[in-house]
Structures are given as C-alpha cells and as structure tokens.
Amino acid sequence: MSWLYLASVIGAGFCMGLVDHRWRLFAFRGPRVALAVLASGFVFFLVWDLVALEIGVYGRGESPAMTGIELAPHLPLEELFFIVFLCYVTGVLHGLFGLLLRQRESVRR
C-alpha cells in the first residue's frame, strides 16, 4: 500500500490553492460560487465514472503508487480526490483566462 499518488494529487491541489489565493482566481474570488461549481462538477464526474465502470468502458488500473483502497468495485479512493482536483484546476484556469482577458482589454483602452 502506497499513498504516493494520493499525496501527489493533494499536493498539486494545495499548490493550485496557493495560486488561487495569490491572484483570487476562483475559490478566493467567490467561495460560494466556487463551492457550488466544485460540488456540481464532482457529482457529474463521479456519476460519469460510475456509469463508465458499470458498462465496462474502463476499470481500475494497478499501480504501486496507489493505496489499494476501493470505495466501490474499480473506484479507488484517489479518484475522488482527483475529481475534486480536476474541477478545481478548471475553475482556477477559467479565472486566470478571465483575468488575462480583462488585463488585455484594459491595455487596449
């Protein structure tokens, strides 16, 4: 049992949080909206994963870097953290692109 992959996802999420905090891109710009977006994205992708697992589109891969803890058949613990990370990164990138576009517009004026 290894916690390497889970620790990596959590560490990357923490680093993304530092970027978000520094430039107020997503969760630190509007926490309520960010929480709603994260929750809806999490539910969407969790359902997506469960349906894909049920119909056999994909299954759990074996890796020595994973904990081996399954919350459902072929649904590793790490997947939940990865889904949150994926949604968070998307929100931060959306905020970043918005910031860059606003800066670009202010330079043009």
UniProtKB/TrEMBL annotation:
The keyword Transferase does not apply. It is a multi-pass membrane protein. The chain crosses the membrane at residues 6-23, 35-60, 80-101. Pathway: Carotenoid biosynthesis. Keywords: Carotenoid biosynthesis, Isomerase, Membrane, Transmembrane, Transmembrane helix. InterPro entries: Lycopene_cyclase_dom (IPR017825). It comes from the Bacteria. It is found in: Membrane. NCBIfam families: CarR_dom_SF (TIGR03462). This is Lycopene cyclase domain-containing protein. It comes from Aeromicrobium senzhongii.
